[in-house]
Specification:
Helix content is 52%, strand content 5%. The chain is elongated and about 105 Å long. By secondary structure, it is mainly α. Helix 1 packs antiparallel against helix 2 and helix 2 crosses helix 4. A two-stranded antiparallel ribbon has the order 1-2. The protein has one domain. The chain has six helices and two strands. The termini are far apart.
């Protein structure tokens, strides 16, 4: 076979077909031919209960601060209702509310370090490490970085507002929340070497 420049090309042999470097078409009914590598489907997604336990561990200080704050608020309401015209004593309630608010603000620093910096860099916050799961990018299979971990937590506000987002891993085939779908992340079981 010759081309317009009179170069000699060997004839293509049906016994040794050349492999294409193009990716196979994306179709559920498509079966790739020989020469294409198709990764097996993942089956190592973290369960919903693993994710909930990790979240409770990571957000524990925040929840403690909220409980203390609302306990102080409840004391304030009780004292106000019992005062019946006299000057109420709000000192205990105010102290509890201030301590609760202080714990909440301190826990924000913990969340920034634990969930954004450490989990962004390694894929595992303290809670994820304790429950043996890892946060990775779905397309890259690597940790998502501090900035994307922060944005993912912001997107989780959508999960919290709808509540369905947090329950979505119960029926989603990849156990993803709305935040995971938007950020293209997955949470998988950590391998023993990690």
């Amino acid at each position: 076979m010759t081309d317009q420049y009179r170069s000699q090309w060997p004839e293509a042999s049906s016994a040794n077909p050349q492999r294409s470097f193009l990716p196979p078409p994306a179709s559920p009914d498509y079966s790739p031919g020989p020469g294409y590598f198709v990764a097996p489907p993942r089956s190592d997604y973290a369960t919903w209960t693993q994710r909930v336990r990790a979240r409770l561990i990571d957000q524990g200080p925040t929840y403690l601060g909220v409980i203390i704050f609302y306990a102080g608020y409840l004391l304030w309401v009780i004292e106000l209702s019992r005062s019946s015209g006299s000057t109420p004593d709000f000192e205990t309630a105010a102290v509890a509310m201030i301590i609760g608010l202080g714990v909440i603000l301190a826990s924000l620093a913990w969340v920034a370090y634990n969930r954004w910096m450490i989990a962004g860099k390694t894929g595992q916050s303290l809670g994820k490490r304790m429950t043996k799961i890892r946060l990775i990018g779905e397309e890259t299979n690597t940790p998502i970085g501090a900035k994307n971990a922060f944005i993912r937590d912001l997107v989780h506000i959508l999960d919290a507002l709808t509540l369905v987002g947090y329950l979505c891993p119960l029926w989603d085939d990849k156990n993803k929340t709305f935040g995971d779908k938007i950020m293209k992340t997955i949470v998988v079981r950590a391998t023993p070497s990690t």
